[in-house]
Design goal:
The complex is a heterotrimer. Chain A is an all-alpha fold. Chain A is about 60% helix and about 5% strand. Chain A is built from 14 helices and three strands. Chain B is about 75% helix and about 0% strand. Chain B has 14 helices and no strands. About 5% of the residues of chain B have low confidence. The relative contact order of chain B is 0.13. In chain C, a hairpin with a 2-residue loop joins strand 11 and strand 12. Helices cover about 30% and strands about 25% of the residues of chain C. The N terminus of chain C is likely disordered. By secondary structure, chain C is α/β, with parallel strands linked by helices. In chain C, strands 6-7-8-3-9-10-12-11 form an eight-stranded mixed beta sheet, with helices on both faces. Chain C has a four-stranded antiparallel beta sheet with strand order 2-1-4-5. The chains are: A mainly alpha, B mainly alpha, C alpha/beta. Chains in contact: A-B, A-C, B-C. The interface between A and B is large, with 45 and 58 residues.
Chain lengths: ~350, ~350, ~325
């Protein structure tokens, strides 16, 4: 008598992961985005006007890797203030005394003003050249460098807003849905009130008054973005609470927090996960909008929105608009693809066709 | 039914009060209010005239206290917080939104003067969005999985991944006389000397100024609306009553476009209610990109210039529109879903 | 208009029907080789647990299997000489609702919530018989009254959610029978209703069928009591196959297949007071995991060694009584 061994059953999570991977668009976007994000932490090594290593008269210096600021004259340069490493590289090469400089791949910093660069004649903003792949902005700062640093900031910002917003939203939504009753009615009014406030406008008002830094801006944005996930959470908790397994847990004497975290929450993951990518798109979009208006991150923080603003003021200089918006578009597109794949994996819509 | 709406309207009031109170608080307790602005202005002019000892810009010039008191009284800044809030609310109810210190005109007049422009763009964009997205969503549902579906999905992704105003900016750079083409003007509502143009030119000029902003407006809801329509229709196609319709021998067209569609339009309709906010209030981002002197633009500049009366006025209007939009959505929902209408 | 058939004629013949669903790349066969006949003027019951394939069978007859992921792979469904499975969909649509009609389990979700029941009932008439509004309305009122809806002409303009469950099912029946089909397929029509309403609906269905001597009903249910109440003949299904077929009295008096005996044994009866109910051991395996050989072998109390290797064929042990079981493979009357 032959018996077929049942195939090893995969956990639901594994199945979903497999499904996610089968969506090439989303999967590759996830890899690409994640890779780029990780890479961006190496920014100071890859895109910087400080040298990676300097060998001067037998001594090694590592300006990019440390916070030490080396004076020009310490390295044999006839200048006041901090050393200009690019010029130093040329200088050493000319002198040919055995000193050398290793510069990062793209030797420009996002915040340095290149007004005195001899390779950039004329007033800023400059169109793209071989050295400056995306030209400079209206203050003579390299656009490519600003774009690259801006990427990490935008993405980190977005993730921060989503996380913060989720924490608030999930808590509020779960409580309202779980405890219901009077708390729910009052809570709903509060949520309604809060969402009735014109989002961007209020943020601008606040921002114009207190000029927030990175973290504070995240907090402010999150304070207006948590409503989305709270609606979903409330719905889920309401629905799940009515189910039998919750009654069983209550009958067993489980505490509220135990029921919420151990029982209901794992079953409510679907909207949380499928909503996240789109929340991220919204957060990054809001940041760029705010920066564009001038009420987002403070200068000289490299930001995409600010570049667009300059672009509109200098409409002949298309590179100021195209490159940052192109970067924004690509990033958001990848997030959207990820979101689509996640949704298909976690919340597949089976569309059956009758005829 | 009626009771439900009366209750909703009544609940509007605490929500409205809550929001305005919050914003009023923010604007009051922070430096840089109208009086400070005036002071700065005054100092600037007196400083130029060579007053004060010691060099440099902002030197403290003595402002007579009577003037200060008068200013404070005028802006209700000398009264306790609650009183000034109550006074402001009282004014509000008589439609007196105060006076703009920058324009020296009643705030209401300033805002109302800009309504037509914002509504013009908002309405056209809104109509464009709905008249394109609803049929597109339906078509995508019918041809789910086809080449058409994939191609249009690409467009949808674009619409979602780039904010409306940003798309407008890109288009402006391409078509607005930048380095590429020069089809459309840089912005504004109408060209200079529009009144003197012959009729035909008036129309083309207006159209020229309208195209890009309207695309920007529509782009915002393009993606979400199309996807909503498609998903709503496809979800309904999986419902039991569709199977019954087929079992009766009805053909695919009738089942999809009569039975399923009618149900799938319900979430679309309810979204219409919220659209009223955009239509009326305009988007400051788009108006900024295209130099349109509408309500959005006004709101933005008034924040920068700390013209609080205007800021509050616009905030009030925005809030009211949002709340009214909610109620409108509810009304539409009732009208469109018999399960709610007759219960 | 329905073609007249003599009572006793075969009105529907199913031959070797095979329907499956594509699940995660593999085909799961819900119906594996089902053959039976439906005679004019009879009420034929198909009884079985969930997962037996009875609903899928009925949906296959109407070709209402969603494709994808489902597929009617093999077989013939002969109705008045034509194989329904070979018709084009436009031709199939002429038969649905007019010659063969179907009602479903959940009347609430089976009716369109945004249209009046009048519109939904009249729709078939307008579509199949091209009636104008006035005539259609007349027929609709007539039909609704016939199924027991009071104040029918006013109720035409009401919406489904304004009716109770039993009333909605009556509306469904009216909707299905309005074009006077030869066959009514009823897929668990009373499962979602209260017991008292259940009895009313069944009574209504029997009544309507009696009034039209040559009409047939194919009643799908999991409830043997319903079958006993209503049907002339019964088919017992398990594992996507027919396990036993018999006239109603014969089945209850002489249940032959161990599965049938198990089903009957688990119905509480007054004479068994004090004795434990017999239950069929085990659970219905999922479609992907049915055993080789006899589908019931893993749960059968009378199982024999070679039941696990060979699938028994359906054999007639008495006129009108067929059974698929190795216990009877060699037997003949």
């Amino acid at each position: 008598m032959s018996k077929k061994t049942a195939p090893k059953s995969q956990s639901i999570f594994q199945k979903r992961l497999k499904k996610f991977k089968s969506f090439k668009r989303g999967y590759y976007s996830a890899l690409l985005l994640f890779g780029a994000f990780l890479l961006s932490f190496l920014n100071p090594i890859l895109v910087n006007n400080k040298a990676l290593a300097v060998s001067y008269q037998g001594e090694m210096y590592f300006p990019a890797l440390t916070t030490d600021v080396y004076q020009a004259k310490d390295l044999g340069q006839r200048m006041i203030g901090e050393a200009d490493y690019r010029q130093l590289a040329d200088q050493y090469e000319e002198k040919n005394e055995g000193d050398w400089v290793v510069m990062p791949l793209y030797p420009y910093s996002p915040i340095e003003s290149l007004l005195t660069d001899p390779k950039l004649p004329g007033p800023p903003p400059h169109s793209p050249t071989a050295e400056h792949w995306m030209g400079t902005d209206d203050r003579g700062r390299d656009v490519f460098a600003r774009l690259v640093y801006g990427f990490r900031i935008s993405l980190a910002f977005g993730l921060g807003v989503v996380t913060f917003g989720y924490v608030i939203g999930m808590t509020v939504g779960a409580c309202l849905g779980y405890f219901g009753g009077r708390l729910d009615i009052i809570g709903q009014r509060f949520v309604e009130m809060w969402s009735g406030m014109p989002f961007l406008y209020t943020v601008i008002i606040i921002s114009s008054l207190i000029k927030p830094d990175f973290l504070l801006l995240i907090a402010i944005l999150a304070a207006w973005r948590w409503m989305g996930i709270s609606y979903y959470m409330r719905g889920e908790f309401y629905r799940e609470k009515a189910k039998d397994y919750v009654s069983a847990a209550i009958a067993q004497g489980d505490s509220h927090s135990s029921i919420i975290f151990r029982h209901i929450l794992p079953n409510s993951l679907t909207p949380i996960i499928s909503f996240a990518p789109f929340a991220l798109v919204g957060a990054i979009g809001s940041l760029v909008s705010l920066d564009f208006l001038g009420f987002g991150l403070q200068p000289p923080t490299p930001s995409w929105g600010e570049l667009v603003k300059q672009g509109l003021a200098n409409i002949q200089k298309w590179h100021l608009v195209f490159f940052p918006l192109g970067a924004l578009f690509s990033t958001l597109l990848m997030v959207v693809f990820i979101g689509e794949a996640v949704r298909e994996a976690f919340d597949p819509k089976v569309f059956s066709r009758l005829r | 039914m009626g009771a439900y709406f009366i209750r909703r309207l009544l609940l509007l009031i605490p929500t409205f009060l809550g929001i305005t109170f919050l914003v009023f608080t923010v604007t009051r307790f922070v430096p840089g209010g109208p009086v400070d602005q005036m002071l700065l202005q005054m100092q600037a002019t007196t400083g130029e005239a060579g007053g004060g000892g010691g060099g440099g810009a902002a030197s403290t010039v003595e402002i007579p206290t009577e003037v200060l008191d008068e200013l404070n009284a005028h802006y209700n800044l000398d009264k306790p917080f609650y009183v000034s809030y109550a006074l402001w609310m009282k004014d509000l109810l008589t439609l007196n939104l105060g006076e703009s210190y920058k324009f020296n005109q009643p705030v209401l007049d300033i805002i109302v003067a800009r309504f037509p422009v914002s509504i013009y763009f908002g309405l056209i964009g809104f109509t464009l969005a709905y008249s394109v997205c609803v049929p597109l969503g339906i078509l995508k549902a019918i041809k789910h999985g086809s080449v058409f579906d994939f191609a249009s999905s690409a467009l949808v992704f674009v619409g979602y991944s780039i904010p409306g105003w940003a798309l407008g900016a890109v288009l402006l750079v391409i078509f607005g006389g930048g380095s590429f083409f020069d089809f459309v003007p840089l912005g504004g509502f109408r060209s200079e000397g529009w009144d003197d143009m012959p009729m035909w030119q008036k129309i083309t000029d207006q159209l020229h100024h309208t195209i890009l902003p309207v695309i920007a407006y529509a782009a915002g809801s393009f993606a979400t609306l199309t996807v909503l329509m498609k998903n709503s229709l496809m979800e309904n196609l999986g419902q039991d009553y569709v199977r019954t319709a087929f079992a009766k021998g009805l053909d695919e067209r009738r089942v999809m476009l009569v039975h399923a569609l009618r149900n799938s339009l319900i979430p679309i309709c309810t979204g219409l209610g919220h659209a009223i906010g955009i239509v009326m209030a305009g988007s400051y981002l788009i108006e900024l990109v295209f130099n349109i002197d509408g309500i959005g633009y006004l709101g933005y500049t008034s924040i920068i210039e700390r013209d609080y009366a205007v800021v509050m006025g616009i905030l009030v209007i925005n809030t009211l529109l949002a709340l009214v939009g909610n109620i409108l959505s509810d009304v539409l929902y009732v009208l469109v879903d018999p399960r709610i209408r007759f219960s | 208009m329905a073609v007249e058939t003599e009572k006793g004629d075969v009105v529907l013949e199913v031959k070797n029907l095979k329907t499956g669903f594509s699940i995660e790349g593999k085909m799961a066969w819900a119906v594996r080789g089902v053959s039976f006949k439906v005679y004019a003027g009879e009420i034929l019951g198909i009884v079985g647990e969930s997962g037996s394939g009875k609903s899928v069978t009925s949906l296959s007859l109407m070709r209402l299997i969603p494709d994808p992921p489902g597929k009617i792979a093999e077989g013939e469904v002969l109705f008045k000489g034509r194989d329904l499975l070979k018709l084009s969909f436009p031709e199939m649509r002429k038969i649905r609702g007019k010659d063969i009609a179907m009602i479903f389990q959940e009347p609430m979700t089976s009716l369109n919530p945004v249209f009046t029941i009048g519109m939904q009932v009249m729709e078939s008439l307008k579509f199949h018989e091209n009636l104008d509004d006035a005539h259609a309305r007349e027929r609709a009122v007539e039909m609704l009254t016939l199924v027991g809806i009071p104040d029918a002409s006013k109720r035409l303009d009401a919406y489904p959610h304004q009716f109770s469950g039993g009333m909605r099912q009556r509306v469904m029946i009216a909707m299905a029978l309005i074009c006077r089909p030869a066959v009514l397929i009823a897929d668990e029509p009373t499962t979602a209703l209260d017991v008292t309403i259940q009895a009313q609906i069944l009574e209504l269905m029997k009544d309507l069928q009696r009034k039209r001597g040559d009409a047939s009903i194919l009643l799908i249910t999991h409830d043997l009591a319903v079958v006993a109440e209503t049907c002339h003949r019964v088919i017992v299904m398990y594992g996507g196959q027919i396990q036993e077929t018999a006239e109603i009295k014969d089945l209850f008096d002489n249940p032959t297949h161990p599965y049938t005996k198990g089903l009957l044994g688990s119905i509480p009866r007054p004479e068994m007071k004090g004795k434990p109910l017999t239950a069929i051991p085990g659970n219905v395996p999922s479609i992907m995991n049915f055993p080789k050989g006899c589908r019931f072998s893993t749960r059968c109390v009378e199982v024999m060694p070679h039941c696990h290797d060979n699938e028994p064929a359906l054999i007639e042990i008495r006129p009108g009584h067929e059974v698929r079981c190795h216990l009877f493979s060699g037997e003949s009357e």
